[in-house]
Design a protein that fits this description.
flavoprotein, single chain, two-stranded antiparallel ribbon, binds cytidine-5'-triphosphate, 12 strands, multifunctional enzyme, alpha/beta, FMN, 225 residues, Rossmann fold, binds calcium ion, phosphopantothenoylcysteine decarboxylase activity
Length: 225
Amino acid sequence: LLSDDRDRPLRGARLVVSAGPTREALDPVRFISNRSSGKMGYALAAAAARAGAQVTLVSGPVALPTPPGLERIDVETAADMHAAVMALMGEADIYIGAAAVADYRPSEIAPVKLKKGRGASVIALTQNPDIVADVAALKPKPFVVGFAAETDDLENYARGKLIAKNLDMIAANWIGREDGGFDSDRNALQVYWPGGAASLAMTEKSALAEQLITLIAEHFHAKNS
Ligand code: CTP
Ligand code: CA
């Protein structure tokens, strides 16, 4: 192995990362969304670029600068993110779904601002497409990594999603614990794949992202050799 291969384990790989929340409009001034700062997805995109990958970051609305050396596509809704990601999949070797995609959108978007006290207390919702599952259903499919944030029963839910969505790997984290998660600069991950698991201990998201990218690179190369 050349030293360059060890430093840049994703050299030449085309990688797409989704990050941040999506926003689903109710009316011109209101939306439904998920708690997500985008920090983990952005850290992964930056780490993948440092590892030599050709990175496209598909980003929901976040307050973060674009990391150096990658292309960023901004989207707002889950439907927009689905379209942007699927359009990139013909060319992608790896997809990392780190976005907190809204599971539902309001069935109708009011063209004018909704007014209080006019009986509009029930919002009808329509389920959004599952982006990571649709990517993993492609033939041929890229190496697909999903995320899961869970408040309870982490391993069962994460392994359930790994199987149900036909993912190659899933990175899961606890939410509602004192350190790590949403707005934090730190996190810990339990990583699962069909034949095994790894624990990445609580640390800065930039260091954690580097460790996860190393793990992804190993499994990506094992699958493609
Ligand atoms: N995901 C996606 N598209 C969606 C919903 C989720 O691509 N419409 C992806 C997320 O980016 C993540 C993975 O699916 O990589 C798991 O997301 P999660 O919300 O934990 O799973 P769900 O299947 O939506 O299950 P639930 O919210 O009920 O736990
Ligand atoms: Ca969800």
